[in-house]
Design brief:
heterodimer; A: alpha+beta; two-stranded antiparallel ribbon; 19% helix; globular; B: 183 residues; three-stranded mixed sheet; 5 helices
Chain lengths: 141, 183
Amino acid sequence: TIGMVAIDKAGCVATGTSTNGATHKIPGRIGDSPIIGAGAYADSTVGGAAATGDGDTMMRFLPSYQAVEYMRMGADPTDACKKAILRIQKYVKNFFGAVICANTTGSYGAACSKTAGFTKFHFTVFKTGLKDPLEEVVDCL
Amino acid sequence: DPTRPLVINTWPFQRAAEAAWAVLEEGGSALDAVEQGCTQCEIDQCDGSVGYGGSPDEHGETTLDAMIMNGNTMEVGAVANLRRIKNAIGVARAVMEHTKHTFLVGESASLFAESMGFPSEDLTTNKSLTIYSKWLEQRCQPNFWKNVIPDASKSCGPYKPVRGLQNKKEIFLEKEINVHNHD
């Protein structure tokens, strides 16, 4: 699954997701990716967020919407992502998932939930001053 | 503003970021950037978890889900369980641009996509067929059923519900969702 947040020169924020979902899913099943506020959310007055992971769990907590709301309340993107992850962990300790966040001032961050075989989350950034995209990594909570 | 533009995406899908950045650098909109970035991943079949030929369902079919959101207008276009159409994010954009709705699903979403000019193609590949065949050989393991008979941890379906379940607190079951198999 890809989840993306883009902010253009005018400061407009857009988000998007695309996925083929879980392997061997029951036909008809969809995950969090196309659900607004779960897979991604955008508000140009604040920023944007996108999520990835176990969609059956994550879609119940709307982590992208939650992260944007945390940023609206003043959290920086990294903290907003962490809070969105911790909120899910209160109910599902070892869920598999990650959230990326960016705000309209150009700050960005990510957070993930640690599970077996998933202790770090890699994400990609392209920003002014770079010639190539930058791969960044965060340790999972 | 020196902090803009900006692209950030999940996982190390660098070509997607490059495609989105190329749009922004030329003065394009964030919406176009997201569409192009995700489209690139669909073409590249990023990680096997995006685009055609990945994550076959219990019938061996690949279906796609996508969503796009405009943070200026709060417009959204989304599609899910999209069949036979490779450019899922493009169809999501079309839902946003050409309907007053937000979310189309299943066969009807595919018919909408065809009416909007998206080509209808088989999303199956040799790789997805192999994944599906191996799963059948392994007695349909893993799967996402619970409280059914026959025991889904040992047998393929068809399944029927187990009767007489008592109300219990929901237990989040271990699932075969991981870095190679995710939303």
